[in-house]
Amino acid sequence: MTVRVRIAPSPTGNLHIGTARTAVFNWLFARHHGGKFILRIEDTDLERSRPEYTENILEGLRWLGLNWDEGPFFQSQRLDLYKQAVEKLLAQGLAYRCYTTSEELEALREAQKAKGEAPRYDNRHRNLTPEQEAAFKAEGRSFVIRFKIEDEREIVWNDLVRGKMSWRGSDLGGDMVIARASEAGVGQPLYNFVVVVDDIDMQITHIIRGEDHIANTAKQILLYEALGAKIPEFAHSPLILNMEGRKLSKRDGVTSISDFKKLGFTSEGLVNYMTLLGWSPLDSTQEIFTLESAAKDFGFERVNKAGAKFDWAKLDWLNSQYIHHTPVDKLTDLLIPYWEEAGFKFEGGRERAWLEKLVALIAPSLTRLKDAVEQSQLFFSDTVEFSEEAVKQLQQEGSAAALQSILTALDNQEKLDEASAQEIIKQVVKAQNVKKGLVMRSLRAGLTGDVHGPDLIQSWLLLNQIGLDRSRLNQAITAGS
Ligand code: GLU
After folding, report:
1. CATH number assigned to the domain covering 326-380
2. Does the pTM exceed 0.90?
3. Atom of ligand 1 nearest to the CA of 199
4. How far is it, in rounded angstroms, from Cα 387 to Cα 389?
5. Domains of the chain: which residue ranges?
6. Which CATH superfamily is domain 81-190 in?
7. Which of 145, 377, 386, 465 is most exposed, with the fewest beta carbons within 10 Å of its own?
């Protein structure tokens, strides 16, 4: 048997972290078994589906490296298939037309509520005579198609994550609607039904999805039986929870993959983190791995039943590991879009070789790619803002004279490099008879406007190469006076 799995996102929003994590598990399972990973866009909800969301989903999956083997298939283009399946169930007497009005359903719900019962459809139109149907039609009532669910049925499956699962037909809310009303006959088919028709048609062997679909699985198994198809395996993965232990939702802020990208997470760091959300590798101390290496190990034995808490600190740590191991040229490519987004201009000597030196300088202190904006701000603006501490430093006795002396030395220096920069500092210390620390701290405060930051000599060289060091030092002398 060839393993065939699928991810079936609904394009009613951007690619959500939960859907993406489900995609990761599907991808890993397919690759582990040398099977196929299929992408199906569930766009039957015409009102809420949008092409830009589909675009966002495809882009997000590609960015994460979750390449698919077949698709994308669009449910909106497969309506004939669903209608045929509805007709088949109607012809076999496994489904029927229900003419109950929304007012009648509401009254039914109210009555059930009054008796303290769970709301359910009472199957009242299951056995209408042709005369009764004709009478409802004559009244102008529209209908939905309902699939019969026997109350006494027990539905059992062996979930690959959760073990034996068992549901009673009576817990499924009565005969279920599988298609909405339509003037022209069978109208819009509904989620639980089209999923099964598609999964049968696409020969899906394993259905791997979030545990919020468990109740759907019970209904879907009945549909597989009715459609005469083999029932696939099911694996319901744990939900992603926030740190308070509640299901991660829009209220938690960032939940879509494109937002994580905007915040500066690398695709490798994020996908690595998502893999660990509910799964652990054979060697449970191993935290950093590629999708390919995780695929070698992947199986449901080590998928947790309990919800997986989303831990920003861990994600940040993993992301920083990826950033710190990315070669400078590649990292430069990754950072340029964030600088562009911040409005930084690559002019006045800020060419590629200079950018790469800047990247090498700041890389060790980056946790997220976006941190590069703040950390390199001073290299992209002509003037500098001095922090309070920097001003204090510049006001120290001997500071202005030391900076003036550096300026003079610079006038006599053709090309500044590491050795000549060190030499200038040494000469100034000697000539001014001050401590080296004072010169260094004043130079840092003058050039960067701050008392902390990356390597001072490298920062100076970078500013010198874009002709900003002299003007900064002049500005600093004024600020300190
Ligand atoms: N469209 C459904 C969702 O986005 C797919 C569920 C399934 O995998 O069957 O939740």
Report:
1. 1.10.8.70
2. yes
3. 9
4. 5
5. 1-70+238-325, 81-190, 326-380, 388-480
6. Glutamyl-tRNA Synthetase; Domain 3 (3.90.800.10)
7. 377
Q: How far apart are CA 84 and CA 185, in angstroms?
A: 12
CATH of domain 388-480: 1.10.10.350
- Centre of ligand 1 to C-alpha 213, Å, is 8
Q: Is 213 in the pocket of ligand 1 (CB under 6 A)?
A: yes
Does position 184 have pLDDT exceeding 70, yes or no? no
CB-ligand 1 contact for 8 (6 Å cutoff): yes
Burial of 330 (0-12, 13-18, 19+ CB in 10 A): exposed
Query: Known catalytic residues?
Result: 250
> Token pair 């996908």 is at which residue?
271
54: nearest Cα among 16, 14, 4, 93: 14
Nearest to 3 by CA among 101, 88, 87, 69: 69
**Angle made by CA atoms 310, 316, 322, in degrees to the nearest 5:** 125
Mutate to test the pocket of ligand 1, among 39, 207, 213 (most ligand atoms within 8 A of CB): 213
For residue 182, pLDDT beyond 80? no
Tokens for 417, please give them.
Answer: 């490099």
Q: How does pLDDT run across 137-175, given as a tens digit for each residue? A: 999 999 999 999 999 999 999 999 999 999 999 999 999
CA atoms within 13 A on the CB side of 348: 12
Distance separating alpha carbons of residues 300 and 304, to the nearest angstrom? 8
More confident call, 250 vs 308: 308
| One-character DSSP codes across 130-149 | HHHHHHHHHTT---EEEE--
